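Progress narrative, work stream C.
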Amino acid sequence: MSELKTLPNDGNVMAFLDSVENEQRRKDAISLLDVFEKATGLQPKLWGSSIVGYGMYHYKSERSRQEGDWPLVGFSPRKQNLTIYVMPGTELYTEKLTHLGKHTTSKGSCIYIKKLSDVDTSVLQEILADSVKRMKELYPGSS
């Protein structure tokens, strides 16, 4: 079984965000800190080298022997877009996503946004808050 590479660490979240090359993406990522804090009440932590995560839950895969820790919610300022991670899955937020604004989703847990100004951050906050609530219900020992 391979070791997980994306682990929480003591990296400086602001230093990471300040290193984002694309100026608009960097500004949007820094703005997301406020959006996530308001939605979660949690402090950001760097996971791996490129994910800003909030909270943590421990999972055990039903299909394999893999288990590990992962953030309850998080984001990453990728080259193509801002990737927002909502761990219960985007399919639970179909209705809310219709009001979010310009975005795309994966079949799993990712919401992709080109520019933060393209979306309604209050709707994003609602999705994030609900995601954290659901994850804490699914994983009672989460923080």
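Work stream C, second folded protein:
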Amino acid sequence: MNIKKHIAVSESGVLFNGSTGDSFSVNPIAAEILEMIKSNLPEEEMKIKISDKYDVTPERLDGDLYDFLAHLRQLNLVEVDE
């Protein structure tokens, strides 16, 4: 998964879609996930990093991460690797 080229991401977690002019603000954990995506970290490694840093059950982590990544896809902010 990669953030699309026309999407700018600030360190504070603001995304700007240069194609549409839309902007989105995310919480600090989502900003960390965006940084992991920018670093081309596989989803399984994202889960390890998040679970090492935060007290979250594997089930909750799986669900929340899946929902967030699905939302990014729905908003057309990321592209999925083949």
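The helical segments are 28-38, 43-53, 58-74. No further action is required on this item.
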